[in-house]
C-alpha cells in the first residue's frame, strides 16, 4: 500500500509535467510555467526514488540515494517559491530565495557526508555515535528549509488568490495552497528520523505509511489545483446539476404546502417537464413567491410577533428564516379556513435579486417550515385562534 501511494504521487507529478510543459510551449505569456515544470520534475524524481528504495528492486541503494531524494525535494520547493515570485516580479526577492535554496542544499549535502552515513541494509542507514549530532543537524536543515519554503509559497499564492474573482482559477489557487499546507506535516514527520538517530544511531531510508500518505495527498491536491482550469469545465455541469437537485429537494416541503393550498400557482404538467431540474428549481422559486403574494391577505396582524417570540431559541442566522416560515405556515392555515385579515406591512424578507440568492434563502425557510419547533408552535397557536373565528369564505 505504501508503494502504491508513493508511485501514485510520482505518476500524478509526471502527468502535471506533461500538461504544464505543453501549456508553456503553446503560451508565451506563461512565464512561470518553467518553474512549475521544474517543481514537477524534482518532486516526481524524489517520490520515484523513494518508491524505488521501498520496493528494493535492484538491492540496497547506496546511502547517498536518500540525500539525492531530499535534495530533489528541496529543489522542488525552490522552484515553487520562484514560481510564486514571478507573479510579483520582485527580482530582489527572487535572488534571496535562490540564495536560500542553494545555501540549504549545499549545507545539507555537507552535513550528510560528514555524518558518515553508511547503507547497512535495504532500508537502514547507520553512522557512528560521533556522526549522530551531524545527522541531526542535517535533518534540522531539511525541516527548517522545507517548512519555510512551503509557508512562503502558500503566503505568496494566497496574496495573489485574494485578487482573483470567484472562478476556477481562484479555486485552483486555493487547492494549491491546501497542497502546500499538507506538505508542512509531511515535512514535520521527519522529526521521527531525528528520534531514531538519537536513540538507535541509525535511520530508515524508506517512507512509512503516514509519510507516504501525506506525500501522495500533497502532490494530488497540488496537481488538482494546478490543472483545474483544464478539467474543471468538464466537471461543472454535473456539479451544477447535483447542486440544483439538492436545492430542489430542499424547497419541496415549502412548495408542497403552498401548492396544496393554492394549486393554481403551478405550471401545467407539460411546461414543468421542460428544462430539467434547473428549470424546475427556477419555477419553484417563482411559484413560492407568487404564493406568498397571494397569502398576504391571510396573514394575522400579530403572527410575526408570535413567531419572533417563539423563535428566541433559534440561532441568530436562522431567526429571520424561522419567522418567515412561521408567517407562511399561519397564513396557509388562515387561507384554508377562508379567513382574511387587513393587509399590513408583511413584506417577505428581502434578498439579492438573483436566483441563487432567492434559492439559498427559501431553502432556509423551507427547512424551518418543515422542522422548526417555533414554526410548529405558531401553527398550533394560529389553529387555536382560527377555531373561534367564523369563516369569511363565500
Keywords:
394 residues; mainly alpha; 2 domains; 3-stranded antiparallel sheet; 15 helices
Description:
The protein is mainly alpha-helical. The protein folds into 2 domains: 2-226; 237-386, no CATH class. Helix content is 75%, strand content 2%. It has helices spanning 2-26, 33-55, 64-88, 91-114, 132-161, 168-188, 191-200, 209-226, 228-261, 269-272, 276-295, 303-310, 316-337, 355-371, 373-386, and strands at 118-119, 124-126, 202-204. A 3-stranded antiparallel sheet has the order 1-2-3. Strand 1 (118-119) and strand 2 form a beta hairpin. It is elongated, with a radius of gyration of 32 Å. The relative contact order is 0.08. Mean pLDDT is 77; it is low at 23-29.
The SS-based structural class is: mainly alpha
Number of domains: 2
What is the H/E order? HHHHEEHHHEHHHHHHHH
Shape descriptor reads elongated
Largest sheet: 3 strands, antiparallel
Task: Specify Rg, calculated over alpha carbons.
Answer: 32 Å
Q: Uncertain runs with pLDDT below 50, 5 residues or more?
A: 23-29
Give me the count of strands.
Answer: 3
Helix content: over 70%
Distance between the termini: 76 Å
What's the helix count?
Answer: 15
Strand order of the largest sheet: 1-2-3
Kindly estimate the percentage of residues that lie in beta strands according to DSSP. Answer: under 5%
* Average pLDDT: 77
Amino acid at each position: 500500500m505504501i508503494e502504491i501511494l508513493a508511485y501514485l504521487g510520482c505518476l500524478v507529478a509526471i502527468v502535471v509535467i506533461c500538461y504544464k510543459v505543453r501549456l508553456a510551449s503553446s503560451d508565451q505569456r506563461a512565464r512561470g510555467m518553467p518553474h512549475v515544470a521544474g517543481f514537477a520534475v524534482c518532486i516526481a524524481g524524489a517520490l520515484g526514488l523513494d518508491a524505488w528504495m521501498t520496493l528494493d528492486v535492484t538491492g540496497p541503494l547506496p546511502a547517498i540515494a536518500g540525500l539525492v531524494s531530499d535534495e530533489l525535494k528541496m529543489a522542488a520547493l525552490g522552484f515553487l517559491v520562484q514560481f510564486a515570485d514571478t507573479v510579483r516580479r520582485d527580482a530582489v526577492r527572487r535572488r534571496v530565495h535562490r540564495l536560500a535554496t542553494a545555501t540549504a542544499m549545499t549545507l545539507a549535502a555537507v552535513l550528510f557526508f560528514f555524518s558518515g552515513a553508511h547503507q547497512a541494509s535495504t532500508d537502514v542507514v547507520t553512522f557512528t555515535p560521533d556522526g549522530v549530532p551531524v545527522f541531526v543537524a542535517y535533518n534540522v536543515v531539511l525541516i527548517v528549509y522545507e517548512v519555510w519554503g512551503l509557508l512562503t509559497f502558500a503566503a505568496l499564492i494566497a496574496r495573489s488568490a485574494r485578487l482573483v474573482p470567484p472562478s476556477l482559477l481562484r479555486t485552483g489557487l486555493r487547492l494549491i495552497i491546501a497542497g502546500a499546507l499538507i506538505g508542512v506535516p509531511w515535512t514535520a514527520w521527519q522529526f521521527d528520523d531525528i528520534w531514531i538517530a538519537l536513540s538507535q544511531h541509525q535511520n530508515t531510508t524508506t517512507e512509512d505509511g503516514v509519510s507516504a500518505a501525506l506525500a501522495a495527498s500533497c502532490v494530488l491536491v497540488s496537481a488538482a489545483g494546478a490543472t483545474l482550469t483544464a478539467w474543471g469545465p468538464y466537471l461543472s455541469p454535473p456539479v451544477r446539476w447535483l447542486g440544483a437537485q439538492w436545492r430542489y429537494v430542499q424547497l419541496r416541503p415549502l412548495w408542497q404546502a403552498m401548492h396544496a393550498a393554492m394549486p393554481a400557482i403551478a405550471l401545467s404538467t407539460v411546461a414543468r417537464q421542460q428544462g430539467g431540474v434547473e428549470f424546475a428549481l427556477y419555477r419553484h422559486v417563482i411559484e413560492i413567491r407568487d404564493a406568498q403574494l397571494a397569502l398576504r391577505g391571510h396573514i394575522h396582524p400579530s403572527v410575526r410577533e408570535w413567531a419572533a417570540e417563539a423563535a428566541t431559541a433559534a440561532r441568530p442566522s436562522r431567526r429571520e428564516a424561522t419567522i418567515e416560515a412561521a408567517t407562511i405556515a399561519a397564513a396557509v392555515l388562515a387561507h384554508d379556513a377562508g379567513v382574511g385579515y387587513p393587509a399590513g406591512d408583511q413584506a417577505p424578507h428581502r434578498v439579492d435579486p438573483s436566483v441563487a440568492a432567492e434559492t439559498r434563502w427559501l431553502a432556509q425557510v423551507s427547512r424551518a417550515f418543515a422542522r422548526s419547533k417555533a414554526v410548529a408552535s405558531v401553527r398550533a397557536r394560529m389553529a387555536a385562534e382560527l377555531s373561534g373565528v367564523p369563516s369569511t369564505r363565500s
